[in-house]
Structure formats: structure tokens, C-alpha cells
Amino acid sequence: MKFVVEELAIWIKPEQRQIKESNWFDSSVLNLSWVPAMQRRRMTSFIKMALFSAHQVSTQGNYVNLPSVFSSRHGDFHKTSNLLVDVVNDQPLSPTGFGLSVHNAASGLFGIIQGNTSATNAIAAGAESFIYALVDGFVRLADNDQQHMLIVHTDETLPDIYAQYADEQQIAHSIGLIIRAPQKGEPHFSLNKVFNSGVGESDLPMSIQCAKALHERSNTLLVHNTLEHDWQLTYHA
Amino acid sequence: MSELKEQIKQLIISSLDLEDMTTADIQDDDALFVDGLGLDSIDALELGLAIKKQFDVKIDANSEQTKAHFASVNSLAKFIEQARS
């Protein structure tokens, strides 16, 4: 699968010191001043991250009514986890918490606030969630004759009670990008599933490996502890 | 009664995440929904739940009266007083 990245924004929570300060990501304070205060008040840090990235890339250029894919491995898990604790304790559930704990909450809020009426998908695909957001975006570019696709990937650190199940570094981060199909002879990326690469493992989330490689336009093998296969990202200059 | 109204205002602010507001910003007879404070239907559900929890009163979700009870801090205070006595 081949695609061109027109816009790319990578945000990593400032406290994540395991990633060294560098110029390939942003850790500034999340600015959501474009969201009306009455809507902003209900947003968790997960939703704020997602909307921040979506807004950063979609307000560049002259994009109108972008179709989108929002992906996350765990979604707004802190919110879900709190609801589950209430269920266990036989407490009534917060209607707001319940309404915003669904996997497409961030994508829905983005659509409402921006007045965006295009189709949007919400994807969770384990350690490969970001990869499959790219796959979905690519398929829709090819299939629906879309000009551009907005892709937003966001993950929070796991809530404490789930931390024992972590199989990768816990890094709160969000990635926004806009992709389109390449024109003939134009520099582009390709992404392919590969087997038996024999290359070592990584406990860095695949989304961050991939975003860094997209930023650096490098040829990178994206690997994960839990997967038998890898993904080869190649830049064709 | 005024103590109860203060409690209600605090509950409105905390349960609905109205971070930038203080109880002094809410008048006893302000309309809570749509015009006035600008709260919406999800806020109504959330506030209903919070009132039920804190004051241990029963709220009938489908009654027209409930709508009237939730009009303002004044009417909420009156409703909670009656329900508790």
C-alpha cells in the first residue's frame, strides 16, 4: 500500500521522560481554545489529545469536511475503568461518563464541533491499531475516490489496576496525519506486512515507531513483542 | 434553606465540571437549562443522579413535574425539602 503524508503532528505527554527530548514530536500544553467552553468541560485528557491532533493537521491547507479514521488501542480507558469500578460497587453510572466512553466518542465530538459530516471510523486493533488506521485510510482512498483522509491515533497510559497487563511502554501520545494517494513519480511511503524478518523486538508502541519514521522519512521495520509478523515502512524518494 | 441552596449550587458545579464557575455565579432563580446557565439534557441526567446520591431523594424521570423541579436552584431546593420531609 502506497500513500503520501501531507500533514503530520505528533504529540507526546510532557511527563513521558522515557522518550528523550527531540524535535520529532511536540509536548506543548494542549490548546483547545477553539472548542466552546461548555463542550470542553466534559473532555478527558484522552479526548483532548485526540482533538488537539485532529485540529492541528486538519486546519492546515484548505481541507474541507475531511473523512476520518480515529484509532486507539485502549480508547478512553481511564473513563471506562471508572465506570467498571462503579458497576462492581453497584453504583449508578454517570450518564456523561457512559456517553463518552464509547470508542468513537472523540471522532463524534470532532464531527460535532467542526460541523464535519463526512464518514468516520473508530478502530481498535491491539498493538497494531495505528497500522490498521492507515490501512483503513488507504482502502477508503482507493475505494471511495476520497482525495484526503484524516487519521488520528491516541493512547493513554493504562489505568493503574491494569498496569500489570502492559506489554509495551506506557506513553500518553497522539498522532494526527493527512494522507492521500501518490501521483505518478511522486515521493511516497509504502507499508507492507513482513514475516520472519528476524529483527529484534521493541517495547515502544508501534504507533510511535511509525510516526517517528514518517517524520524522518526513514525506512523502518516496525516491530512489536506480541506479534509474529512486522510491518515494513519504506520511503520512496 | 439557604444552606441547602448553597449545597445544590456546589453540586451543580462539581457534578457538571463547571470548572470556571463559583456558587456566586449562580443565582437562586436563574434558569439552569437552555437559556440561563446553558445546561443540556446530559447535564439534566447527570445532575439528577448527583441529587439522588447526595440527598437520597427519588426522581421520576418521565414526569412533567420533574421538569419544573429542575428549572432553578429555588425549585430544586423546594423539591428536595418536600421529598425529604
UniProtKB/TrEMBL annotation, chain B:
It holds the Pfam family PP-binding. Residues 2-84 form the Carrier domain. NCBIfam families: PRK09184.1. This is Carrier domain-containing protein. It comes from marine sediment metagenome. The lineage of its organism: unclassified sequences, metagenomes, ecological metagenomes.
